């Protein structure tokens, strides 16, 4: 009987993570498809460098607004209902962008899609983290990042296959996962921790008993939740001294995830490579290779975050991203992007994708969803998402201009320096969260043992 219950709970947890992570698939597809669509949109709408950056960045601005707005909604209405609202926005935005007949309508539609993407990035990782058992939380939350990477790969393949067809079809295909997300979420349970925060302890117990291996395990977990149960805290809580280490770690990863250049590569790789003489078809194929690398490395990361640990994974992978970008910058600086040089250039950019996505991009939503106390988890994750999208907005608005001013080689070297900085940030500020319950992480914040380097003990030792 216990074995049957365990299998049932595991299957339900997997299904919940799968449906919720469809929001990540939409996230990846709608942010990635613009890279191929721009090659058609630019001549049709006579886009300049600046207007291309605006169309691309509209989704990022929307995401910034959406993730901030989602925090109070997710705390008031619940994680599940907020995801349903995001799915509705995905549907509306996809229909409008498919039939857009001007730059203004196109930009507005991308803004609506951004609202949905931002809300998803804020709430889906929290929803999964609050339902998943501690020993599987890493892999299940990384399913969201896997869905993002898979969505980007699908968008790159779609862009390549449809390069001789209308960009409208490229955008319109996004309606399929939006419908799956909307319908699927109608049948999923609320987060047990959100229910507990509302005082609905019996409902929280019922959900936990459905997704844990035994009733006893569910009851123990509910007791941990209720022992640390607090009312919803205001925004200022995440800046208080006891929560500040979590804010520094999570927001730092969120900022560095973008400032290290991963989305600059994703959004503009076809344009940069086409300008370097690769040709449109070859440039699009390079994006497909990037997408395959993303899916492969996130799949590995989904295993590594629970086997190695979040912090260990980042510290092992980030140096590879630095080396890859240094090589990539040299190839563009030397103009060696043809013949044999083209293969070295492509290998370097795929290598960068593997090491950067496999570290910071794998960790961002996972660490953000697990380090904050329950009372301010929604607010904290909103801050994480806002930092991510704010940095992404800056990168998407400036990448083509940086390439024009510094050259592709100089731009990639700049990103290499930021990647090196991220290594030392993780080393100093990001703790290992592998295998620890959300309540244990909260306790470490309260007793001052959260940060990997104990400042008080370090100061005492130095004296």
Q: Can I get a quick summary?
A:
The protein has helices spanning 2-20, 22-44, 49-77, 79-98, 103-131, 137-161, 167-172, 175-185, 192-197, 201-211, 215-227, 244-259, 262-275, 280-307, 310-333, 340-370, 377-429, 438-446, 455-462. It has 463 residues and is mostly helical.
Commentary on this structure:
The chain contains 19 helices and no strands. With 463 residues, the chain is mostly helical. It has a single domain, classed as MFS general substrate transporter like domains (Growth Hormone, Chain: A).
Class by SSE composition: mainly alpha
What is the highest CATH level, the class?
Answer: Mainly Alpha
Number of helices: 19
Average predicted local confidence, pLDDT: 82
Global morphology: globular
N/C terminus separation: 59 Å
Look up the CATH topology.
Growth Hormone, Chain: A
Major sheet characteristics = none
Runs in which pLDDT lies below 50 for 5 or more consecutive residues are: 455-463
Fraction in beta strands = under 5%
List SSEs in N-to-C order. Answer: HHHHHHHHHHHHHHHHHHH
Query: How many beta strands in the DSSP annotation?
Result: 0
> How much helical structure, as a percent, in the residues?
over 70%
Topology record:
Layout (H helix, E strand, L loop, with lengths): L1 H19 L1 H23 L4 H29 L1 H20 L4 H29 L5 H25 L5 H6 L2 H11 L6 H6 L3 H11 L3 H13 L16 H16 L2 H14 L4 H28 L2 H24 L6 H31 L6 H53 L8 H9 L8 H8 L1
